[in-house]
Structure formats: C-alpha cells, structure tokens
Design a protein that fits this description.
The protein is 30% helix and 51% strand. It is α+β, with helices and mostly antiparallel strands and 132 residues long.
Length: 132
Amino acid sequence: MPDSNSSHSFDQERLQHLVKVWHESILGRDIARLNEIWDDSYLSVSPDGSLITKEQELASVVDPNLQFYSLDPRDIHIRVLGETAVAMGVTHAQGDYEDTDISGQYRFTTVFKRFGNEWRAIVSHGTQVTSQ
C-alpha cells in the first residue's frame, strides 16, 4: 500500500491536470470530456450568482453566443481531504458573450469527490476579479 504522502501528492497532481483539462475542454467545446469531469450532480454558481446545473453548463459550452479565445488557469491550489478535494485558482479569460467582452480574471473554487479511482467535480463557483 502506498504511503499517504505519495498518494496525496499523486492526487494533487491529477487534480491540477484535471483543472487544466477542464479549461481546455471548455475552450475546445469538448462536451464528452466535460461530461466525464463533471459529476451528474454537478452544480455551479456563475459570476452573476446564478445556480447552474450540469445540463445547463454543458449547453452553455456549445452556445454559439459564447466564444472563448483563451482560458488560462493559474495559481492553482489543491487541498485533498480524504475522498474530497478543493481546487482554487484564477482563470485568465478572453472571450465574448452576445458581442459583449467578458474577458478578465475569474477566481474559481471547485469541490471534487473521488468515485473509485476517478475525481469528478461536484460543485464550482466563479467570481470575476474586479481589482488587482
């Protein structure tokens, strides 16, 4: 059995990678990959405070009115707490929604849960950073 420190470090690396893949999947409109990352119970709180289900979030990714040109997650911090983990970071985004520029920095917090050997997102929250 691996020691808890190496297992913990491995989980942190997997989750760091998963956060990056998540952003790449949104940018590439990869619904199949996002469907794997987000648990069926997934809920998100958008920057405007709206509560969004997994189905609504998936629909927004392919919405032709939403166009991301870049999504760059940075300063990612992962805390693994047994079968649950929390990821926090800042996404530098460039994009438009209905011809309105939505570019900026967005701080995110995401809760992941381990299901067998896989981590899946169950809750996420994003807030636009208005000052540096």
